[in-house]
Amino acid sequence: MKALVGVKRVLDYAIKVRVNPQKTGVDLQGLKMSMNPFDEIAIEEAIKMREAGVIQQVVALSIGDKNAAETIRQALALGADSGIHVQTDLRIDQDLQPLAVAKVFAKMIKEKQFDLCVLGKQSIDDDFNQTGQILGSILGIPSATFSSKIEIDVANKKATVTREVDFGLQKIEVQLPAVFTCDLRLNTPRFANVQSIIKAKKKPIEVFNLADLGIDFAPRLKVEKVEMPQERQGGVIVGSVDELISKLKNEAKVI
Amino acid sequence: NRQLLTQVQSQVNNLFQSQPIFRETLQLQFQVDIFVHGGKDSISKQVEEVQKYPGIRSIITSASDDLSNPYGDHVSQTLKKVVESHSYDKVIASTSAFGKDVTPRLGGLLDVQPITDVIQVINNGQQFLRPIYAGNALSTVSSSDKIKILTIRATNFEKIAAGSANTYPVKEVAAQNDNVQGKWLENNVSESEMVELGSAKYVVSGGRGMKNGENFKILYELANVLGKQHCAVGASRAAVDAGFVPNDMQIGQTGKVVAPDLYIAVGISGAIQHLAGMKDSKVIVAINKDPEAAIFKVANYGLVDDLFKVIPELSQKIKALQ
């Protein structure tokens, strides 16, 4: 069996977000970009499956401009066997949208016969939280979202998945092939060592042009405006519990 | 304009997550049908609950064993049938784990790009405001899809209370479960006598400063004093990652978004990802011994002191007031 893993290049989570002066998008110029943190969990999970002998091959797919190749190299350094780079100059944080991304993955899964697709539950730029669910529907295969534990039953071609839901945890069973989206506590991603980074340079990356894939990737959502939220004003520092209670009772009137 | 509001099965609490759209809906003069799904034994009870809310045109029900504790595709496939047979132009669910799971599935089935986590409906329902980058930017979008599939963040919409029972027509639709290749196995519900985080009036939340899970008991004591029917206990991602408390308590970009009347952040530094989950609270109190903590920049009232001294004192003194 083999797994396809999505790795998206996003603005590093620690970088302060600023909107461009034209208010058409978040400013990304010259800023540090990293692999989407949930995708690090996805790649880790797939590599662990291969180490456990559950699957034999891990392929990392990224969509984006030339620089997305760096994110694929990072996945290869972490242990993926090969990469697929679907090139586009569209802004992947707003103009390439989950429905189109799911169609790219669907095409690759169909053509290259993947048994599993492992994705992060959301990317930390557009925060949509949709691609895995849409992908399952497009392919007519099950998707297990917000996974915090994935157990693959190779003999019976199915998986038992523990999901993080609002009331606690939920266990479901899905037939393979299937899509999994990863939540925070599925695993702790490893770091790549120098040796594996060097080795990654020799691993193959197949390159496609998004426009040549024959899919409808035109954005359905038009971004009318992007703006900064109103900053919340800090209040006062109180000197004691008594003063705090007095403020809450008499000024804010919440207790 | 016709609209469909999805309704989570058999959990009365979830009704409160979906219901805030009603106010918006009435303003926009949509015709609203409510979709209720569940097990055959529970469906009439759910319909009875929905009948108590104003502004509905009709209630559409679907009951089957699979829908009692559904796997996502059971719901999305049934919804697809309902949407297509009634020509709805909007499908709305709340931004809950359930809504986020099911609505994109429906989008994939209908070739529609869903709009998740809407915090404001603008321009008579033509544009939608949603947070991006963990709420550090806000994006206004419009959609070229014929059907708009939305999830809304319930804390940003005005709630309508249940009233006297109405007699809206109820229409049954057969559950659709052909080729569903997944199934529900079990729920493991976190045990708490307290109200759910999403609907709590007060939230007391602990961070890495709590030092361990055992220490969260002082937060539960404070929550009890504030009233366990109104108050829930949450946590920052740092506290969850450190293994102090389970993930369903996590408030933030990657956890739950809350906006209670009063949010008390205890031993929480105020990372961007946490602020994204609580900065719309009406009144924020921060208790932290580090005067430089970022949480003080968003707090209405800050107290720079040792939480292990302050929290028991706060509990005791609020109790004395009552």
Automatic annotation (TrEMBL), chain A:
GO terms for cellular component:
mitochondrial matrix
Where is the protein found, in the record's own terms? Mitochondrion matrix
Coiled-coil stretches are none
Among SUPFAM superfamilies, the record links this protein to:
Adenine nucleotide alpha hydrolases-like (SSF52402)
Stored SMART domains: ETF (SM00893)
Record bears the keyword Mitochondrion: yes
GO molecular function, one example? electron transfer activity
Which positions fall inside the Electron transfer flavoprotein alpha/beta-subunit N-terminal domain? 23-217
Q: What is its main location?
A: mitochondrion
* Gene Ontology BP terms: amino acid catabolic process; fatty acid beta-oxidation using acyl-CoA dehydrogenase
InterPro entries linked to this entry: ETF_a/b_N, ETF_b, ETF_beta_N, Rossmann-like_a/b/a_fold
- This protein's UniProt keywords: Electron transport, Mitochondrion, Transport
Q: Which PANTHER family match?
A: ELECTRON TRANSFER FLAVOPROTEIN BETA-SUBUNIT, ELECTRON TRANSFER FLAVOPROTEIN SUBUNIT BETA
The subunit field of the Swiss-Prot or TrEMBL record says:
Heterodimer of an alpha and a beta subunit.
What job does this protein perform? The electron transfer flavoprotein serves as a specific electron acceptor for several dehydrogenases, including five acyl-CoA dehydrogenases, glutaryl-CoA and sarcosine dehydrogenase. It transfers the electrons to the main mitochondrial respiratory chain via ETF-ubiquinone oxidoreductase (ETF dehydrogenase).
Q: Which family does it belong to?
A: Belongs to the ETF beta-subunit/FixA family.
Q: What is this protein called?
A: Electron transfer flavoprotein subunit beta
